[in-house]
Hints:
The complex is a heterodimer of chains A (about 180) and B (about 160).
Chain A: H1 3-33, E1 42-50, H2 61-72, E2 78-85, E3 88-93, E4 96-101, E5 106-114, H3 118-125, H4 131-152, H5 161-183
Antiparallel strand pairs in A: 1-5, 2-3, 3-4, 4-5
Chain B: H1 3-19, E1 26-30, H2 41-46, E2 55-65, E3 72-76, E4 83-87, E5 103-114, H3 117-130, E6 144-156
Parallel strand pairs in B: 4-6
Antiparallel strand pairs in B: 1-6, 2-3, 2-5, 3-4, 5-6
Amino acid sequence: MKWRKFNIIIHRDLGYLCFGLTIIYAISGVAVNHIQDWNPTYVLEKIVSSVNLAGIESADNEALTSSVLEQLGETSELKNVYRQDADTLKIFVVNNNITVDLNTGSVFQEKSTKRPFLYEANFLHLNHPKKLWTWFADLYAVSLGLLAVSGLFILKGKKGLAGRGKWLVGVGFVIPLFFLWLYS
Amino acid sequence: MEKPMKKIVLMFWLLVLGALPLQAKTEIYGKGVSIQEATPVSAILDDPDAYVGKTVRVEGLIIDVCAKRGCWVYVAGDRQGEKIQVKVTDGEIVFPMSASGRMAAVEGVVEELKLSREQMISYLQHLAEEKGQPFDPDTVTDERMIRLRGIGAEIEG
């Protein structure tokens, strides 16, 4: 088999294989790039409201917690309760952190919901699983390198590397160099 | 699809499934925790100079998580109202929002940040605003911030 034909086969099949993860990483990449402006993994909702805790013994964390959750209509699983100080009670339920000012009855809720698809995409892209995924992601990175190199040699002639290809490859190097110079 | 190709595709999916995380009871972050004996947060805060630069293990309830990047958590101390921040390098360890309200063991190096009064007020005000809590600048009496540079953590599921 001629080397160019073998190169095309490598490029084609690696391209098919890498398609899924490339799309996942590309979407996650854009999402994470703008982390200054938003949380790419969770939808955060901050709610200020109030509850009436009159008649409940201020030292009775259990009764206070039950009353707060009932008044807020919060039914998610209770994870923990923490008495930060005499006036502040923190209640942790799944996907909701509730801070209660026991003096005023003021309540601050911080609700977090996983962004569908992006949570999973970022989980993989940022290598949270570690373990075997690290090796798989390394393999994917090597495959991308092979895709890039094999892509250079798909076409011959004017539209190949010897023709317009060399200029476009050059531009591909110049762009990051320009930004390195700009921000140095 | 040809038989050898089928085998390759099957092996690929087995590899992918094998890479998926198992739902462990305790989740390990970073390098995990190797020190066996925990240092009370109160001991660190009472005498920070004795601990700065030392690697310690602290245990407690996670009461706050950085909502934006998961780059810090606050661990409640053994004395009411006390807490210590565990800061990790962005991206190296990312604490999920679900870590709040969970018990954790954290290992890290005690470090001291020396901020100006204005910087400390600005930082604490930002944290309070993010958590919807009132903040009185007059309560800031110490410009030293003692925290842990996190190396690893084990968080109960």
